[in-house]
Amino acid sequence: LNGSRQCFWGRGEAMNVSYSYSVKSDKSFGFTFMKPFLGWQKYSNISFSAYRDFAYLPWNLCNSKENGLHFQYSGQLWARKLFHNIKATMTWRTLCPSRETVFSIREYAGHTIKCSLENSVAFDTRNNRLLPSKGLLLRFAQEYAGLMGDATFVKHQFDFQAAAPLIFGTFLSASIQASVLTSLAGRSLHILDRLYLGGPYDVRGFNINSIGTRGNTSCLGGATSFAGVLHFYIPLKPPESLFAHAFLCTGCVASVHSKNRLSDLANFQRISGGIGLVLILGNIIRVEMNYVVPLKHSAGDSYTPGLQFGAGINFL
Fold first, then answer.
1. Domains of the chain by start residue, with CATH
2. Cα atoms found within 13 Å of the Cα of residue 133, Cβ hemisphere only
3. If exposure means fewest CB atoms within 10 Å of the residue's CB, which of 64, 74, 139, 244 is most exposed?
4. What would the mean pLDDT of 270-283 be, rounded to a whole number?
5. Is the pTM of this model over 0.70?
6. What whole-number distance in Å separates Cα of residue 264 and Cα of residue 78?
7. Phi, psi angle pair for 167, to nearest 5°
8. What digits encode the pLDDT tens for the residues 58-89?
9. Rounded CA gap, 225 and 195, in Å?
């Protein structure tokens, strides 16, 4: 169930309420309220969110429940090309192991509280955020957790994307994402806070969130990650919505116990390549159907050569 209301006080406010009930009796809800700052070319707003979410984590063979509160400020500057976002978050999370969960993940079972402050600055000139044919994105984001609760870390993330048109409507696109996590107060990084890669949204051809250190059949995540993807797109019919593409992906995740993270990232890169179709539905969602072949992998990696499907809004 989902309901929304716009401008109910006549000054651009928006409210959205959602509720879901799964066949396994799991309940989720979300409430969001947004208030814009009115004025000449201010392009900024504040928002508040409260939610309860349930997720199955197949890469960890367990489930997670999360209750959270978000307070957020979003602003745009410099002809709406520079974006600034500040978010304060408090979440109460529960990791629920299954019978198959390995001990290295099971030891994090139970409740954990994270109180964090996030800041991001982005320069964005892309003509389309789902599938740009020209433009540039540079984003720097930081997260500090440890104001309250048992989760204590600092996270830095860098995102880069560039696209350039070629001939006959074809274009090239390149994306890079690099992240670093540093634990504070001598505590181990919780399994829910670690970095993961793999799947149809970044390093295609590998199972979702499966790259990195493993414990039997589960992925343990890491503290440093790098991923890069190069695409060549050819427009089909209709040319604004359907594209064929060829791509080459690379990525790696360094363990939380790594003594030389840069060396691990360089020596244990996974590489995959493939071709496929990309469908843009109303500038709301991106759908990919690809045939992927992993070209380089490490022992124990979970990968599946062949067809891979993905739908969402955040793709490398």
1. 2-312 (2.40.160.50)
2. 17
3. 244
4. 94
5. yes
6. 39
7. -110, 155
8. 998 899 999 999 999 999 887 778 999 999 99
9. 7
